[in-house]
Amino acid sequence: MPSPARAAARDAEANPAFRFAARAGYAANGILHLLIGGLVIAVGAGAVQDTDQTGAFRALAAVPLGAVALWALAAGLVALGAWHLLQAVAPRGLSGPRRLARIAAEAPQGVVFLAVGVVSASVALGARPHAEQATEGLSAGVLTLPIGGLVLGAVGVAVAAVGLGFAWMGVRRSFRSKVRIPAGARGVAVTVLGVVGFLAEGVALVIVGVLLVVAAISVEPDTAGGLDGAVSAVIALPAGPFVAALVGAGFLAYGLFTILRARYARLDV
To answer: What pTM did the predictor assign?
Structure first.
């Protein structure tokens, strides 16, 4: 990146208002995960509802002042996405492999949060998207390509690898490098919520990745799915509703951790 552009990114990163917006974005992401966790638990108990981000947004749109809440979530998630993109390019003292690793870690998160923020805004405007159907449709399109199976399988492996990374962060508690852990009981609570939440997020992503790989091998795009498909796969297992309840509780823990992260996040690393 040209030096003037990188300098502009660093100035934006240091702006107090933008940092406040990034913290608000963490809170918005936490609220979204609380909604998803509640939906997963409800579906495990027999309710009929999508359990992914679009399902959470549609459920929120149905309540009084839901559109206002959706716009607030959209603003926070877009701000968080922009923050991650700045983190990919702005930090000083990184070069070579370390800079590439930072870009690989931060840029995809930025793109995802921006996309989810746009979806929230679209639901506030009246759209009613279904991520599960969109995933299956995209998978079907990919499988029509000459090397579509390889592409979809590679995506599935990548998603599963990200899930393993989340789970590993939970086991190793390496997320603490991104958060200023407070002292006493509050610090213990933040750590426990982080461990449980990262493990649940990791398990869900691994299942999504496995479903994509299965779809690539079987050439059946209906097998592919996002989080909603992963929850359906869990419920189909022996003791599936109980396992789904545990996964939902994990998402609740991750949501609470991320809301607390809005206050304790290290924004200088």
So the answer is: 0.84
